[in-house]
Each structure stands twice: as structure tokens, then as C-alpha cells.
Amino acid sequence: MNARWSPFNVASVTLGLAFLYLPIVILIIFSFNESRLVTVWAGFSTKWYVSLFSNRGLIDAAWVTLRVALISASIATVLGTLAAITLTRYTRFRGRVLFSGMVFAPLVMPEVITGLSLLLLFVAIGLDRGFLTVTLAHITFSMCFVAVVVQSRLLTFDRSLEEAAMDLGAPPVKTFFQVTLPVILPAIISGWMLAFTLSLDDLVIASFTSGPGATTLPMKIYSQVRLGVTPEINAACTILIAVVALGVIAASLVNKRREIQRLRDEQMAQRGA
Amino acid sequence: MSDTVLAAARPVASRPSVLSRTFQAMYGRLVIIIPYLWLLVFFLVPFAIVFKISLSQTQIAMPPYAPVFSLTDGFGGLLDQLRQLSIDNYLWLTEDALYFNAYVSSVVIAAVSTVLTLLVGYPVAYGMARAPESWRPTLLMLVILPFWTSFLIRVYAWIGILKPEGLLNQFLQGIGLINEPLIILNTNAAIFIGIVYSYLPFMVLPLYSALEKMDYSLIEAAKDLGCPPISAFWKITFPLSFPGIVAGCLLVFIPAVGEFVIPDLLGGSQTLMIGKTLWNEFFANRDWPVSSAVAVILLLLLVVPIVIFQQSQARAIEQDR
Amino acid sequence: MKSLGSIRRSFAPWNDPDAKPYIVFENVTKRFGDFTAVNNLSLKIYEREFFALLGASGCGKSTLLRMLAGFDEPTAGRILLDGQDLRGIPPYRRPVNMMFQSYALFPHMTVEANIAFGLKQEGMAKADIEKRVAEMLKLVKLERFAKRKPHQLSGGQRQRVALARSVAKRPKVLLLDEPLGALDKKLREETQFELMDQQQELGLTFVVVTHDQEEAMTMADRIAIMDKGEVMQVATPAEVYEAPSSRFVAGFVGNVNMIEGTVSGRENGVARISDGNGLTIKAENIGDAAAGSAVAFAIRPEKIKVSSRKPDDPGVNVVEGEIYDIAYLGDMTVYHVKLADGQVVKASALNASRITDDPLTWNDRAFISFRPDAGVVLTR
Lengths: 273, 321, 380
What we know:
The structure holds three protein chains of three kinds.
Chain A: H1 7-30, H2 47-53, H3 56-89, H4 96-108, H5 111-124, H6 131-155, H7 159-167, H8 172-201, H9 204-209, H10 217-227, H11 231-270
Chain B: H1 2-9, H2 18-54, H3 74-84, H4 88-95, H5 97-129, H6 136-148, H7 151-162, H8 167-174, H9 188-213, H10 216-224, H11 229-240, H12 242-257, H13 261-266, H14 274-284, H15 288-320
Helix pairs in contact in B: 2-15, 4-15, 5-9, 5-12, 6-9, 7-9, 9-12, 10-11, 12-15, 14-15
Chain C: E1 23-32, E2 35-45, E3 50-54, H1 61-69, E4 76-81, E5 84-85, E6 96-99, H2 111-122, H3 126-139, H4 155-167, E7 173-177, H5 185-202, E8 205-210, H6 213-219, E9 222-227, E10 230-235, H7 237-242, H8 247-252, E11 257-267, E12 270-274, E13 280-283, E14 294-299, E15 305-307, E16 317-328, E17 332-339, E18 344-350, E19 365-370, E20 376-378
Parallel strand pairs in C: 3-8, 3-9, 6-7, 7-8
Antiparallel strand pairs in C: 1-2, 1-4, 4-5, 9-10, 11-12, 11-14, 12-13, 14-20, 15-19, 16-17, 16-19, 17-18
Protein name (chain C): Spermidine/putrescine import ATP-binding protein PotA
InterPro entries (chain C): AAA+_ATPase, ABC_SmlMolc_Importer, ABC_transporter-like_ATP-bd, ABC_transporter-like_CS, Mo/tungstate-bd_C_term_dom, P-loop_NTPase, PotA-like, Transp-assoc_OB_typ2
GO cellular component, one term (chain C): ATP-binding cassette (ABC) transporter complex
């Protein structure tokens, strides 16, 4: 069909995707293993899921993680969107270089440094480590990811839409909420989802900044992994993967349906209906 | 007549009220000030604190370091405190070969892994960029999807595969390729695999966007002028994808240098990586000043690549604008 | 000697039965999935010819060019170049070069390196490459820009680099895909003549794809009009304009009035065509149209005269109407005349003098007149 889509290209994409997915698939399969070993198949069983749900420690940790993720993702989305607007719209203000540096650096900053520095800040200002400090830490690093996602959408945003709104009498704030925001909303939503999963996933920063009573799920999983690999962990991981995968797939399906609807509308319009 | 009706219906330009004017003026500044302050307080100030603590003395207390600054003592106290600053922690880092070796081996492991990730990622990105256009969004989503699942889980999955009695060895022995199980887990090889696996999407995405953006007629022009496909790749495609290569390599290299989870779970006890050293210094030895000094040096090590990364990002924004 | 149009041609190998065609498309078909881009097409192009493929976008003209360059292979049929079947020969081994619509200049190379690129592939000696590059730069008048990168050049300069790069290898045939499409109107007109001069100077065969009829008319020796993967007519610009072979060609090139009707009688090569609403005209150039068949009388606006007084020449067609619209264009004026049966005919008058003695205005009674041989009768 396409001369450029050569066997070599097909093979490299296929192998690349296999490499990315095989370990995850294996992990999921062995969560249903009857045996305690995660390397030898001994028949299908869901007993590890049952024992997982009777593990109070894990359930509590999951609840903490979920609350941290929801709160931090929401605040990070607001801050990250503001940062993205600043980066794309205000090209000239004092300290812009420092600002863009502070937005981009956390994307690549080793987590141990971010975690350590935030912990020392909390100690210095006398904030007790716990739920609040983990949330603050997660807001800080995930807002930068949101900023990058939203910024890339803002760069392709047609500014004449805003100019039209102002020409028709809408002041800047109204213009933002009635014109800009609806257009960049998909990017903001995917920014929120990214922030949510980043928070859900984080081990290192949470380990530094959380205190007693605010153990997150990754911390719990990590401490159990250090003791050895068990199907129960596989089961916990499978549930996490399933939640994230369902979320992402649902979002992309909604997107796709909207896209198809748009194409259909455009075709109708073309035909003059 | 209709002209007069219109003129009457439309008011002459009116000035907004004082209240709304102040609000509109504030709006522009607030957009900048809120995220700016947040990042200053939670990103920049903490670094200053790390730097400060790296210069103070270790104490067995909570917090386990002697405070360097405290404004309660006034100006005299401040001078007194300045005199107490010491570079002892840094001297300690130079005295113990452990730290130096950890830095060197982190950089080496990160560099080798980055090259491996590039070798694995380039064909994947190239294949995606040449795929039929209708497939590309799906392929892109498939590459990003694993990134949405927990990093910890993805690293954990490899333990069961790489163990001496793990699935890889079972498979290789099953097909008769090897007799003795390969020892991969708890070696640097396992760390390479872990880093390549975890960071592959970070390499593929910038490469893909550089390759996808490239005008295919350039390749056709090269062929038309007598250049066979492989040579056209090296003369046209490869140099033009260079910005993507730089971005991808930095996105892998910088965080890999300070990586903790991968060396901790997949590497052995003799694996030296600075992220792990810092973690142990902090959690096991509870030596906050030394771990701060370790962090400061790590940051200095990464300052150049981070600045290059930030510059290339800023340039990309300028080009898209 | 009578001839169509205003140009007498000495170069016309297509009229010579002994001339050997240089490029031959033989029953070529190209399908992409369900879509047929080129449908059983045959075409002959002669050496040193400036040949244009003209058509709307999606008519298959670019596919034809890409098959000649070797980027696409025909699904069926074959393409011969100088007697050699091109099937299976990859683009980098074909003695043809292409000038791309986007120019496809390598952004990471200087002008010089771009021009030298193809020569290096041949393994030409370094000194010879330098000499040839200098020659090419001189040809396109870009000597001062040798060290620049493509993004430091204007659109017209880029076009010339692209040309220099594609002719540097002295190809047997140069393919040009919308060569002037990216230039503005004024520059395009200048460049058209430059290209024609360069083609003369280099003695090459040019095959150019364009959707701009004026460009094709100006530059080409012959034009192939394409529609839906098929060639509708291959002829010189004058033939295409004055003797179109079908309604499609007549309507595609230039402005035309199409008077539809049936042949009600023919004698001595003159036919009577009635439109069934009381309009009857005399027409020559009737070809093989039989009495009673449905035809269109196609006539260009500039061949219709408009006047307020009825002309008294009995040999010409005279129809009464009313001035419906006037477009004053400076060099000429176009009148839209509504006839009694409601159809509107366009007639253009050259404003050869500054003052007219027969001024017409909206709603005036007017007479249009044209000779029976001023148009052609089309059956297809």
C-alpha cells in the first residue's frame, strides 16, 4: 500500500512494541498464577487478588495515593496552565529566562535531588512531613509536565480568535474563559491525566517527603518488592495498570468519537446539507 | 436613515469602571506571578537550602545537622554563623574514593544506556514516521501508553524475567541456546536493560517528531540525483534528525545519571550509582549534610546538559511560534 | 499560408512520421488501492521538446511524472526512454532528474553543496565538480550566493538553485513538478521566459506538470490536457485553444461560450445549429457531426463583436440581445449579453483606442455578431 512502509520498518516497529509490552503482559499473566513463584506457571487462580483485598496496609496506601493524586493533579493543572500561558504569551518580562528554566529543569531533574531538596525545605520551615508535604511536592514537579503539554497546544492556537473576541467587546478575562479555555481544554485534560499518573507512580519523591501515616502505594509496593517478588505484588500492579489503561483508552475513544463526528459534520457541510 | 438607527444603538467607546480596570491590569501579572512564586518557593529555594546544609556540620539530632543561619541572633550572630560554614563535607567526598567512583560509574552507565536506547529507539521512531499516516496516531499512543503505567512496576516486571531461574533463561535453555543460566540480574547488564526499557518512549518521541516533520521529497530528491537509499539515509535523514537525537539523548541521559529505582532493584550490591549512594546516605546513614553535598555535586555535573536541554526546548518553541 | 493561432512553427517532430519518439507511455495504468490515478494512457514525447501536462489537481499528471522519475511503478503498461524499458530501474539509476514542487533543497547544505550533490553520487572528480557547479551557478545567475544555506534565499533564488541542481547532472530529461507554483505572479512571468531560454541553451527535453494554463501555453511546445487519469487532447497551445477536441478541453483552457443545440442541416461544409428556443446559427468546422446530432458550438469571447447598430454583412451570424453586465479590465472590456432565449453570451472587445465611438451601457439593446468559422463544433 505504501512503498515507504518497508519490511524493515514494519519489523522495527513490531519488535519495539513487543519489547515495550512483553514484560507488562508477563507480569499480568503471572498475577493469575496458582503458585507462589512468579516464574513457573501452576494453573489459573485469582487467590492473590483475594488476599490483596484483605491486606489493610495496601488498601490504606492505595487510598492515600488516590487522594494525593487527585488533589495534586488538580492544583498542578491550574498552575501548569498559568505557567504555559506565561511561557507562550509573555515573551518579555524580567526573569523570563529563569522562569522557563524552572519549568523545564524539573522534567529531567533526577528525582533524588528534587525529593531531597523539598524535604529539606519542609524541615527548614517546620512543616511536619505527611499528606500535605507529599501533595505539595507532587504539585511542584507535575505542574511542569502540565505546562509543557498545554504550551504545545497554545503554540498552535490561532490568536486571531482572541482578537476577534476582544474586537466584539469581551475583556481579557472573559476572552480567556469563553474562547481560549474551551479551545485548549483537551490539552488541559490530558495534562491533568499526566499529572495524575505521575503522582500515582512516584516512589522517590514520595519517600523523601512523606511521613508516618502517609505511606503511598508505590512506597508500600517498593518495600514489599525488596523482600522478594510475589504474585500479590503482580496482582496489585495489574490493578494499577488496568486502571491507568482503562482511563487512557477511554479518553482516546472519546477523542476519536469526537474526531469522527467532526469529520462527518464537515462532510455534511461540504455536501451543503 | 438606517445609519442613524445604528449609530444610536451603538454606544460610543466607554471606559471600564475603576474596579474592572484594576482587575484587568492585575490579571496579566497574576498569570505570571502565581506559577513564578510557586516555582521559586518549591523549586529554587529548596536548592539554596540544600546548598546551605551541604556546608554545615553533621549532628546526631533532629534535624540531624547544625543550623547554619538563624536570624534570631542578629547581625553578629550571622557573621559568627558564616565562620562556621565549612567545606568539610565536600572534602569528605574527595577523600572517600566511593563517591568519586559512584559519580564516574553513574555517568558511564548513563552514557552507555543512552547510546543503547538510541540504537533501539531510532529504528522504532523511523518505522513509525514512515508508517501510513492513518496508523501513526495509534502507534504513537502505543509507545506512550507504557509510560502511563508505573515506572516502579515496569522495572519490577524485569526481575521475574532476568532472574537466573527467570523466564529469559527458561526460554533460552528451552530452545537449547545455552546450558547454564545467564547471570544478568544484579549486574550492570540488567541496569542497561532497565534503563533502555524505561526510557525508550523518551527517546522515541523526539526522534519521531523530528523524522515525521521531515519533507519526504528530500529523500526522493536525493534518490533522483543518484543517491541509493542507504546512502540517502546517512546524508539526508540522519543529519536532519539530529535535533531529535540531541533532545532524546538528553531526556534519557540526565535522569539516568541520578536514577535510583533501576540500580536498586536490578543492579547488584556492588553497583555504584550516585542516586543510590545519595539514598543510602540519607535513609541508612541519616547523614543529611553529606547527602546534600552529594546532591550539589550531582547537580553541578548535570548543569551543562540541563542548560543545553533547556536551550533546545526554548529554540523549538521559537521555531514553532 | 494559413495557420492556427499566431505562431509559425519550425520545430514539430510530432508531425513527422519518421521521427522517433524519445519518451513513450504505452497503455500505462496506475492504481493506488481502489483509486485509479492513471488509466490506460499512451503518450509520445519527442527529444528537445518542452512538453506540458496540464490538468486540475488529482487528474493524474503528477503520478505520470513520478512514474517517469521512478518513484512509482506503473500497475500495467510500460514506459520507454530512448527505446529502453524503465521498469524496475530505481530512481537513482535513471538518466532523468526532477525539479520538485517544494524544491526539496537540502536544508543542511549550502547552495554549492546542493548543486554538487548529484555529481558526487556519480563519483565525478573533485575539480570537475567544482567546474560544473560554477557553470551552473552562472547559468542561474547565483554566483554570489554559493555559500548560502537555502533558508537565506528568496523564493525565486531557491527556484533557481533547484533548477541548477537538477540540470547539473546533464540528464536526458528534466521533469518539473509545478516549477513556478511557489512564486508570485510577476516573478512567475519572468521565470517562465528564463526557463524557456535555459531549455534552449541546454538542449534538454523538459516535461513540466502544471495546473496553470497560462504557464503551459507560454512555455510548452505541446500540451497534454488531462482529466481523471486520461489524456483528453495532446496538441500545440494554439490547437488546444482554437481547435479543442471536446467540451472539457474547450472549457478548461481559457474562456468560452458554449451554445448547445442540434444540427438542423448542413450544406457546403456549413451547418445550421438550432437551440430549440428560436436561436439558429451558421457554423463551419463541423467535423463529422451528422444532421440531427446534439452538438455544442464553442466560441471564444474575443471572437464575438458587440455593437449598438445591426451589422449588415449577410455572411455573419447576428443575434440581438441586451447588455446585462459590463466588466472593464483596462486592456479590454467584457460584455455579458443576454439573448432573447435567456442565455448569456460573453463578448470581449479590445480597447485599442482610448476613446470609443460606440459606447454601450447596462440595459442597452445590442447586437452580437460572429463569423461561422470563428468557433468549433464539438460533439464530445
